[in-house]
Protein 1
Amino acid sequence: MVEYAIIADKLTKKFGDFVADNAISLKVKKGEIFGILGPNGAGKTTLISMLTTLLKPTSGSAKLMGKDVIKDQLAVRKMIGVITEKVTMYPPLTAEENLMFFGRLYGIEKAELKKRITAGLEEFQLTKFRNRQVGTFSLGMKRRLDIVRVLLNDPQVFFLDEPTVGLDPITVAFIKKRIKEINKRGKTIILTTHIMQDADELSDRVALIDHGNLMACDVQSKLKRKLGKHATLEDVFIHYAGEQLRDETQKMEMAPRRGM
Ligand SMILES: Nc1ncnc2c1ncn2[C@@H]1O[C@H](COP(=O)(O)OP(=O)(O)OP(=O)(O)O)[C@@H](O)[C@H]1O
Ligand SMILES: [Mg+2]
């Protein structure tokens, strides 16, 4: 029997008349690394936001480890970790102070929390910056610390929305290695990335989304084989998404901005 970490059933999100995600149904197996690919504005972050309870679907439903993302929000939140493009750390606080703060929010008991912080900082090679203000960190250090923060809560399902964007190749390689290790410890991982090589290397399966529609969902080798012997994941991406540039703006930006 396959057990699923995520079952999405016709998940739809509309912003006004605009359909950001259109009846997306997919299943993510427990213990899998699942890549979500698609052009800018395709609806990837919106989909992740619905799966992580941050956005309420307009229609459709989803379950995470058997819990409904709408009806069982709290239970879902306890089981997930989410890394978004924005790093959520307080610049004036030190690395340890930030981790203590978030760890206490997660409700982790103090002695246990200290242990987890020490192990996390060590794993992400940040031990010597433990008492340094996060405001002085490079983007790579902040991103690593953000992952340490999320892992404190020992999430069963770990969402990473473009975890390597803006990072140098050494940090990218380091983070990819850690993602694989975290997965080996039994965690289900859902990630988005625009870097096809990363998606290909990391993912067990990928979903391709375009204009809010799920275009394909399978193991990469099968998707490539359909296009020919030497097809790459980039070829698959272009095959489903076309070559048209995407210059979509946030629909809410059409409204007059306050304070301007
Ligand atoms: N809060 C919002 N209000 C209005 N429109 C939104 C909102 N959030 C997203 N959108 C629109 O929905 C569409 C999908 O956005 P989303 O952020 O999910 O795309 P994405 O696939 O994550 O893109 P990217 O690769 O650029 O991160 C876009 O056209 C975006 O402008
Ligand atoms: Mg996005």
Protein 2
Amino acid sequence: MLNVLIDAMEQAIQEVRHMPERAVQVFHHNDSDGLTSGAILTRAFERQGFEVSRFCLEKPYPAVLEKVYEQEGKTLVFADFAGRIAPLLSTLNQGRNLTLILDHHAAEAATDPRVINLDPDLFGLKGDRDISGSTTCYLFARTMDPANRDMAHIAAVGAVGDGFFVDGALVSENREAAMEAVQQGLIEIRKHDGGEQYLLNTAEGQLPVVEFGDYLDVLGGVGYYQQGPDIGVGVCLEGTTPESERMVQDLRAVRTKLFDEEIARLQAGALQQAPHVQWFDVETRFFPMGVKMIGAFCDAIRDTDLIDPGKYLAGFQTIPDEIPGFGAIGLNQVKISMRVSPAMEEEIRAGRAMGLNVLLPEATTRLGGFSDACHSLTAATTVAIGRQEALIHEMETILEGDVHG
Ligand SMILES: [Mn+2]
């Protein structure tokens, strides 16, 4: 229920106000929903006189969380991730810091009273339909101060960026935020046959929100290790600048160049073949792009004649031992992203082939890796560097067992 969520936000805000330091640390995701979430929270807390330290993370890696929770007496806010790992944060926190979670993914309740999970999933709202991370942060900001209504359009950008539409239109709380922005003259909604188009009214004219979401995704994903997220948060709050325009253009060119070089390597025989899985390892060649790019690259090649349409596709990318703004950290992990061809997509949908949401987490767990976002047709996890072949081998073992069992 929305009322219960707002009440819980109200109480959490009281707790924040009772903290001895007027300072918060905001940790947020690097896609368009995550950047808009970070922007909304930063401005809302600053308006209340808080000093805000903002950190953009591609994933809430356990090693990063352990370092964060070496602190004591701080106010920590997680946005657009961490809803599901509230029990882990509780274990790390042990009552020592005030932790707020403003996520919208499937969530679990916290077990430490000083970890307050405000994920709407725990309050009967659907995070893949009704409410984005940005809209969750917007509701929180508005509860803190009604003046934060002027960020409704930023919430709508995040909601469109995450792409959760019903019959081509935003619904529920996401729609409320968009309508508020329409009333303020910051967004225009155009109806068409397939649903609605959302347009941002800017000083330079109208900009489709879908395009602006992609702009933010490039800054946060491709530009992750080059201050892209900082530029992206600035763009959410102040609009685009010549600097941001130049950066997005450069980042798109870098992405094209690095993808083309990798395609050439695959054409030259870099794609390795196991019985059911074809795989490759870009190692550190995608740097300085973020590790979201290995998934984007798999997407780009999954329907080409580079790959065998009858096998699963897996790509590895080494995760740098560095979090921008946070410093060096020994992650020692490699990310694996998996996709399938359109033909295999049909097999999985029909239940004739194992979904990636079963295959990859199972193999990853056997190697003591970290599973986060796994769906039946797209999945990604991390394992220790050097375990790439072992992971492929585990998947083959699981698939053999499935075939003969
Ligand atoms: Mn999101």
Protein 3
Amino acid sequence: MEIVHYPHPALRFPACPVRRVDENIRQLVHEMTRLLLEHHGLGLAAPQVGYPYQIFLMRPDRAQEDPGNIQVIVNPVLSEFRGSAEEDEGCLSFPGLYQKIRRAKTVHLRAFDLEGREIARTLSGLEARVAQHETDHLHGILFIDRMTEAARLASRDALDDLTRRYRDAQRRGKIPRDEVIIERLKELVSQQGAVTASLATPQAV
Ligand SMILES: [Zn+2]
């Protein structure tokens, strides 16, 4: 498992709620934890490793290397967006790109942990920022979509460069064709089954 880079189609594919926390999901979270620590990230969403599931990890304290301090967030719903703050943000799917992004200062998070226990907390500061960035990922929204026009212009060369490298890797057969990736994403969604509720309770199996 690897972190996928822009413009990999998994980054734009809406993630489905997790219905069953089975061995595959546990293995996915295990691998995501490894990658988050290896890349010194603050957060990582399942679509960033090619899995269209509503799961993200967050570690607002980067100094904290203990995997036990990484929070696993399943089927998150954010509400009560309050205040606004502009801070530098990066994303593991956009290596080397940092821009100021405006986000709410505090948000309320409702979600589940991997054991299916409900999480209901008001987040602030870096934690609120990471939760907003990662929840966006689950809806196919990327931080470039939140940039001001000026920041987007300033990022153009970096984005062109990422696109060029991605297409190059595809031409060399290192990354499958987009149609093949999208078929795989659809298959992974069907493995979780259809869920209608926006806040689904995952069942541990
Ligand atoms: Zn990101």
